[in-house]
Amino acid sequence: MKRSVFLFLLLFLTITGFPQSVKKLKIDQLISYIDSSDHPLVVSFWATWCAPCVEEIPWLQTGVEKYKNEKVELMLVSLDFDSEYPAGLQSFIKKKNFSATFFWLDESNADYFCPKVDEKWSGGIPATLFINKATGYRKFFERQLTDRQVEPEIKLLIAPAK
């Protein structure tokens, strides 16, 4: 009984007591992560100060959660300022109860990193990349998606290759 209580307490503290980890990376590391993925990815470029970004994230989370059996991964790549990494980001993520794989892009030159994600990306956010290396599916949006657009896009993401 004591062991069960201890394990429950440890799990509770792990879930509620510690903010999600936000890993710092460069654009080449992010591209490598995407290129080596063996499962579908939804990669959202966002910032804490971007209201449309913050509004969109719960829709992305809900969509990805519906297809968790398909191993769809939501990656939230923050473009926040240096001063927000890591404490400000972790605090914001915890406050908003976001759930994803979190990265902070340690780049400041959008002319350098944007074309590595998509050649037409001007740097506007929110921006979302849906990519499935196994099927060759790739679609990029440089705008906020609506709650009604997310699920159909995920269905295309996980559809078998034609």
Automatic annotation (TrEMBL):
Single GO MF annotation: oxidoreductase activity
Pfam family, any one: AhpC-TSA
UniProt name for this protein: AhpC/TSA family protein
CDD domains: TlpA_like_family
Keywords: Redox-active center
Annotated InterPro entries: AhpC/TSA (IPR000866), Thioredoxin-like_sf (IPR036249), Thioredoxin_CS (IPR017937), Thioredoxin_domain (IPR013766), Thioredoxin_ResA/DsbE_sf (IPR050553)
Gene3D superfamilies cross-referenced by the UniProt entry: Glutaredoxin
Domain Thioredoxin: 9-155
